[in-house]
Amino acid sequence: FGLAIRTYAESPRHADRHLEACLTLKDEHGTAVPGYGWMFPAGDGTVNIGVGALSTMKGFKKLNLNKLQESYRQLVTPEWDLGPDLEKPRAWRLPMSALKRHGDGWVAIGDAAGLVNPMNGEGIDYGLESGMIAADLFIADPSTAPAMYDAAVGERFDAFLRTGRRFSFLIGHPWILRSGLRLAVGTQYIADITLQVMGNLVDSQTPGAAGRVMRLADRTLAAADPILRRTRAAA
Question: Which among 189, 167, 185 has a CA at the least distance from the CA of 176?
Answer without folding.
Answer: 167
